[in-house]
Amino acid sequence: MKYIEAKERLEALVADAKDKLDIVGVEVTSECEVAENSVSDTEAEPLMILASLALSAEGLSEDDTYYISAEAVVEDGEVNEDALNGAIERFNARVDEAAERLGAAADPKEMLLTMGKEIDEELERIYNEEVARSERAMKKDIKIALLATLALALVVIAAVVISRFI
Q1: What spatial distance separates the first Cα and last Cα of the chain, rounded to whole Å?
Q2: Which helix (H) or strand (E) holds 154?
Q3: Is 3 within 8 Å of 71 (Cβ atoms)?
Q4: pTM of the model
Q5: Less packed terminus of the chain by CB within 10 Å, N or C?
C-alpha cells in the first residue's frame, strides 16, 4: 500500500479514537505525522508514519500525559499492509481499554495517573528482563572465552613440553 494511503488510514484512526475518548475531564489531542529522511535540500523520503493520541487532564503535567500510538514503517514509498493492520488493531485495543477505564472512573485524572504508572511499571519490567537476558548472555560469552583461553594455554604448555623432549 502506498504510504499516502496508510497515512490517510492512520489520520482517520486517530480521529475516530478521539471521538471514542470524548470523556468529561479528559483532554485529548491527536497527531499524525511522517518522519522523513532528507535526501537532499529539496528531496526527502518518508521513513515512518506515526499517529498518536495524548490523553491528559487539567492539572496534570506533560510527564503525566498518557500516550497511545500506532506506527507504520515506510520502505520505498510502501507500507506493509499486514503490519499496518496489526498496529491499528493494537491501537484500537488500547483506545477501547482507555475509554472503558476512563469512562467508568470517578476521577479521570486519577485514572490517567494510574494508567501511566502501569505503563511505567510494564516498561521497567521489560527493561529488567532485557538486562537480565543480556547479563546471562554476557556470562555465557565470558565462560566460553575463559574455556578457550584455558584450552589455548594447555596447547601452548603441551607444545613447550613436547619441544623440550624433541
Answers
A1: 74
A2: helix 108-165
A3: no
A4: 0.73
A5: C
- Cell 528482563 belongs to 129
Is the model's pLDDT at 166 over the cut of 80? no
Distance CA 45, CA 104 (A): 44
Cα 135 to chain center, whole Å?
A: 22
Tell the residue number behind the cell numbers 522523513, with chain if given.
Answer: 36
Residue pair 56/44 in contact by the 8 Å Cβ criterion? no
Closest to 19 in 3D by CA, of 91, 99, 129, 118: 99
Q: Are 54 and 28 in contact (CB under 8 A)?
A: yes
60-83 mean pLDDT: 90
Label residue 60 by pLDDT band (50, 70, 90).
confident
* pLDDT at residue 164, as a whole number: 85
Burial of 66 (0-12, 13-18, 19+ CB in 10 A): buried
For 12, phi then psi, to 5°, come to -65, -35
**In the predicted model, is pLDDT for residue 146 greater than 90?**
yes
